[in-house]
Amino acid sequence: MRNALFLYMAALAAGSPTAIVSDSSAAAATVDSTVFYSLLATATAAVTPNAAPIFPVSGNATEVVGIDASSVASAISSAVTAPATPSVDDVEGKTSSTSTKKTTSTSSYGNCKTKTSTKVITTAAPTSTVPASSTTSPYCSVPSSCTPVSWTNTNSYTSTTACPTAIEVGTYCGFINPLDPCAPQSAGSAPSPTADTVSAFLSNKAYQVLASQAATPPGYIPTFTDLDAAVSANTYLGYETLTSYDTASCAALCDATDLCTGFNIYIERDPGWNPDQCSCAEPASTYNFKCSIFAGGVYASSATNVGQYRDEYEVVITASNGYMLGNTTYAASSTTTNSDVEDDSDGLSTRDSDSSSPCLPDGASRPQSCWGKTHNHPDTTIKEAFFPGPFSIDTCISLATSQSELNLAADVNVTAAFVNAALVVRDGVAWGTYCGVFTQAYDGSECNWSPSSSSGHHWSVQDSWGVEIDVEVLLGA
């Protein structure tokens, strides 16, 4: 099992775009782990966090929250293609279809957050009437001298009696496409610094006060404070723009979103209009409060997004705070700040005890934390897989259920009784979910292996959970 995990890590470092799978019968399961250390050493192509996780976020191009459920189902389907059994033939009970320890089916097991369905923010439907005029424009002002350069408008338009002018298809009265050259951007709510420069923005004491005095929402633990960078990780679920530096609102967004276990709130310096192909390439700035949410991995070591250039305009970030739910891993001894972030080589540590349990579906029970370890039991392993993207115990349960269903359909009397779900972390940055599927249940005290440094990278697992499952309940038998 540990060898397969190194294989997943090697393939992930090489930029594998899909689920990485190993059946226990594969020859690689018996290869010494040093082989996979060497694979890591030669895997030089790095995956960029947030670039294209296997569970892409849903929504429009501005603010999105949630994951595409169909991509999860597709990933599970591609991972389960043939019957699978443990690789060792003489292990007692390996073909048992039930756990050797009692499994109790529980509805919404553990400390479940109250949620509605996953929130997806989409463009509003066309309005039936002309909106009332407002004395305050929601957009930044653009000088009339600013015009598009070498640009042809290829957008499709339609007319409606409700709107005084033609509108872009699929939009509404008054809609302005923010991607058009010179298009005004939404006006931010953050206060302006003393001068419209990068240095004035980053040194603004008012922003530092907001970050340092921000309240920690109930149930969350601060992981870093007042950094000049935002979190970038494959566990990204989406973001919203806020009207104030409000950690409670950001936490509420996380609480209402499936899989979310942490958030990052920060202030961003943005252009007042789109400078791309615009004759005015250095726009006046607007300043936004932003809240991004994640399924794990909100650590100081993951705060690597320092901004970007949009044409000649420099986007930068400050007052960045990170928070994780109390039952997850966090940067423990002291909250990381701008002054000590460079001394934090890993940014991670684990708590001494678990404060709550994850929410589980019917047919799953007895969640036990492994913290920085995984379960390594080759004699009872029937499936292992890695899914880049948000950390999800449910994905591992679905993997186990699908494999068991396929086995039974093929008259192979081997079904899952236990899963191990762990968040894989490379150099302090979260990458995705590792799943191990077993025919026997285990206690938390039997978590027995963890990765380490290899080929210049530090590998670890966080938020690792062992969960007993009842396949009959999960299959609805």
Explain this structure:
By secondary structure, the chain is of the alpha+beta class. The chain folds into 2 domains: 2-57 and 68-110 and 357-474, no CATH class; 157-343, no CATH class. It has 8 helices and 18 strands. The protein has helices at 2-13, 33-42, 69-79, 198-202, 205-212, 247-255, 393-409, 471-474; strands spanning 20-23, 157-158, 167-168, 220-227, 230-231, 236-242, 262-271, 285-294, 303-305, 307-310, 313-325, 336-337, 364-371, 381-388, 418-426, 429-438, 453-454, 457-469. A hairpin with an 8-residue loop joins strand 2 and strand 3. Helix 3 (69-79) packs across helix 7. The model is unreliable at 5-20, 25-65, 88-111, 114-135, 329-336 and 339-355 (pLDDT under 50).
Question: In terms of topology, how is this protein built?
Answer:
Layout (H helix, E strand, L loop, with lengths): L1 H12 L6 E4 L9 H10 L26 H11 L77 E2 L8 E2 L29 H5 L2 H8 L7 E8 L2 E2 L4 E7 L4 H9 L6 E10 L13 E10 L8 E3 L1 E4 L2 E13 L10 E2 L26 E8 L9 E8 L4 H17 L8 E9 L2 E10 L14 E2 L2 E13 L1 H4 L3
Parallel strand pairs: 4-12
Antiparallel strand pairs: 1-14, 2-3, 4-11, 5-9, 6-8, 7-8, 7-11, 10-11, 13-18, 14-16, 15-16, 15-18, 17-18
